[in-house]
Design a protein that fits this description.
- The structure holds two protein chains of two kinds.
- Chain A is α+β, with helices and mostly antiparallel strands.
- Chain A is 34% helix and 19% strand.
- Chain A folds into two domains: 43 residues; 128 residues, no CATH class.
- Chain A is elongated.
- In chain A, 27% of the residues are buried.
- The model of chain A has no long low-confidence stretch (mean pLDDT 90).
- By secondary structure, chain B is an all-alpha fold.
- Chain B is built from 13 helices and two strands; from the N terminus they run H-E-H-H-H-H-H-E-H-H-H-H-H-H-H.
- The model of chain B has no long low-confidence stretch (mean pLDDT 93).
- Classes of the chains: A alpha+beta, B mainly alpha.
């Protein structure tokens, strides 16, 4: 049986750069060494829902406008509307799942820098959308923590609830950004 | 080592209907999946949505420039026009590269909206782009009755490895063997649909433990269920139930179900696909 050179090269390419790496990455949760990040990113296809989820979060963007004394919850749909997976926005992915495992220190620094950048973006968007309102002085990102309980009854699909639903001990502050001091 | 058998396994000539049907199904999946994202195109692909600067994403796989908002209608036309042309087999030899480029672009433009489905789509499109094209499910007649089976083998292997590795991750690297309530906890969060809520209220914990074991067993047994031809029917039924449950209970994971069903096609025998194709053509008279 004669095999064309094109078929041989293509098949070999996919075996070497796709099948073998996804076996390695799939079984070890490590990137295949010496391959570029673009390829190793594509090769991560098997690491979903692997661990217990004892808590679930609802994320809020809170702000302190100039002249106000209390925190105001900004409407999420003004900033994030696309819900790519489940009922959560892209903001969830940024705050909960995007800490990079490759280099903890560098990943942690970048994670904090992204939140600072996000806070400034939120303030800028707020100013554009509501030019008549006082500017935002402080922005923070907060999660309301919902703990799994055995005898809970569910009223339909997941819905975001007001932050007042959570006691202070069930709220987690990712970061707080004092915008004037951060310029 | 029997090189002839290896050569036969990877490169034997085969009917093009399996890969063509996979192409057709993948095209329909991409139309639906991209449409879902496109409803929020500004946030997804332009600076109107928040996208961290490249300096703050040191491990981002590939930084690509975002689209200006004025370019969205043009990009949308290219994206959906090329996927439609790809689906109906119009000039597939060139169109598939356009689809691959568009899907790759949206995958890397916004990492926060890209998941396993995107990665499988990018790689599947690349496989299709490299393979020869047949004429089934196509408005173009290429007069290529057979092709090398390597593309089918790559897709079959991808399916088997992806599922088995998913089960391996859960059992060995995760904690699915430490607690029978993992699945029960996953159903309660921000994926929870009305169906999941009803099941959570009405199925006891033991029932969830049974479903967890069943899901894990399916993933770990996929190599047996799909490599052994006589076991495939069980694999199709068990897998379809597994995927359907996920789609009903977890919001938007219907797209995961759809793309995995595309991969099921490459395990269906050619005779069955021909029967289905002939019935479809007689009824709808769309393709040749």
């Amino acid at each position: 049986m004669k095999v064309s050179r094109k078929d041989f090269i293509c098949c070999s390419f996919f075996i070497i750069f796709w099948l073998l790496p996804i076996i390695y990455t799939g079984l070890t949760y490590r990137d295949t060494p010496f391959l570029p990040r673009t390829l190793t990113y594509l090769q991560r296809i098997s690491h979903l829902f692997t661990r217990i989820s004892p808590v679930w979060e609802t994320i809020y963007i809170q702000a302190l406008p100039e002249g106000e004394k209390g925190w105001v919850v900004l409407p999420m749909e003004d900033y994030f509307r696309l819900k790519p997976f489940g009922y959560r926005t892209r903001l969830y992915e940024m705050l909960l799942y995007s800490k990079d495992f490759k280099d903890f220190k560098k990943g942690e620094e970048a994670y904090k820098a992204r939140q600072k950048e996000l806070a400034h973006w939120v303030a800028g968007r707020y100013a554009k959308r509501y030019p008549q309102r006082p500017p935002l002085l402080t922005v923070r990102f907060v999660a309301g923590i919902y703990t799994i309980e055995k005898d809970r009854t569910f009223e339909g699909r997941w819905k975001d609830v007001a932050i007042d639903h959570f006691e202070p001990k069930d709220q987690y502050i990712f970061s707080t950004h004092y915008l004037k001091n951060e310029f | 080592m029997n090189f002839d058998r290896i050569k036969q396994f990877w490169f034997a000539p085969c009917d093009t209907i399996r890969l063509d049907t996979f192409r057709f199904a993948l095209g329909i999946f991409l139309l639906l999946y991209m449409h879902e994202r496109w409803l929020y195109a500004s946030e997804w692909l332009t600076p109107a949505g928040f996208h961290p600067s490249p300096g703050n994403q040191p491990f981002h796989p590939l930084s690509v420039p975002l689209l200006p908002e004025e370019a969205l209608p043009f990009f949308g036309a290219v994206l959906f026009g090329s996927i439609f042309a790809f689906t109906i087999g119009w000039h597939t030899k060139w169109v598939v590269w356009v689809v691959w480029a568009c899907v790759s672009y949206v995958t890397f433009a916004d990492q926060y909206a890209a998941y396993t489905l995107n990665k499988l789509s990018v790689v599947s499109l690349f496989v299709l782009a490299c393979a020869s094209k047949g004429s089934y499910w196509s408005v173009t007649d290429r007069n290529i009755p057979q092709q090398s089976i390597w593309a089918i083998r790559i897709l079959q292997a991808t399916f088997v490895i992806q599922y088995f590795a998913a089960g391996w991750n859960k059992a060995v690297l995760g904690d699915w063997l430490d607690s029978p309530f993992i699945l029960w906890t996953h159903m309660q969060g921000y994926y929870r649909t009305d169906v999941a809520a009803w099941l959570l209220n009405n199925i006891p914990l033991k029932g969830w433990a049974f479903m967890q074991i069943s899901a894990l067993l399916f993933e770990l047994l996929v190599p047996v269920l799909f490599i052994i031809p006589s076991a495939r029917r069980i694999g199709f039924i068990w897998g379809s139930c597994f995927q359907l449950m996920i789609a009903l209970c977890m919001h938007q994971l219907i797209y995961f179900m759809l793309i995995m069903w595309c991969f099921y096609i490459v395990f269906i025998d050619e005779k069955t696909l021909h029967r289905f194709y002939d019935v479809f053509i007689r009824k709808f008279k769309v393709f040749r």
